[in-house]
Amino acid sequence: MLASGRIARAIIGEISAGFDVAAAAAFKTLLDVCNDSRAPASARVSAAQEILSRSSLGPTPSRSSAVMAQVWIEGIIR
After folding, report:
1. How far, rounded to the nearest angstrom, does the alpha carbon of residue 62 sit from its chain's CA centroid?
2. Handedness of CA 51, 52, 55, 61 (dihedral sign)
3. Domain segments of the chain as ranges
4. Which residue would you say has higher pLDDT here, 30 or 8?
5. Residue 46, CA distances (Å) to 18, 36, 56, 77 in order
6. pLDDT tens across 9-59, in order?
7. What is the pTM of this model?
8. Are 33 and 44 in contact (CB under 8 A)?
9. Would 53 disulfide with which of 17, 26, 59, 64, CB 3.0-4.6 Å?
10. How far apart are CA 29 and CA 22, in angstroms?
11. Which residues are CB-neighbours of 6 under 8 A, at least 6 positions away?
12. How far is CA 64 from the centre of its chain?
């Protein structure tokens, strides 16, 4: 039954749709925590970091990666 491309595509579509719904609910939960003035500040900051790390801005690079990039660029220039 799974050998049929049409059936496999339909199953994949349904699974993808389920993940899309779950992702939307997870995002709404994070956003609710960010906006809840009664939530602890640490929870609001963590929720904000999670949203930003998954946005088009991407995660904040670590200090070590910035240092490594600087050393690598300096090596190319010399």
Report:
1. 16
2. negative
3. 5-77
4. 30
5. 25, 13, 18, 39
6. 888 888 888 888 888 899 999 999 999 999 999 999 999 988 888 877 666
7. 0.58
8. yes
9. 59
10. 11
11. none
12. 21
What Rg value do the Cα atoms of the chain yield, rounded?
A: 21
What the block records as the tokens of 30 is 């994070």
Nearest to 48 by CA among 27, 20, 69: 27
CB 27 within 8 A of CB 51: yes
Lookup: tokens for 58: 């991407």
Spatial separation of the C-alpha atoms in residues 44 and 40, rounded to whole Å: 6
Return d(Cα 28, Cα 30) in angstroms, integer: 5
Rounded mean pLDDT, 63-73: 55
Distance CA 16, CA 52 (A): 23
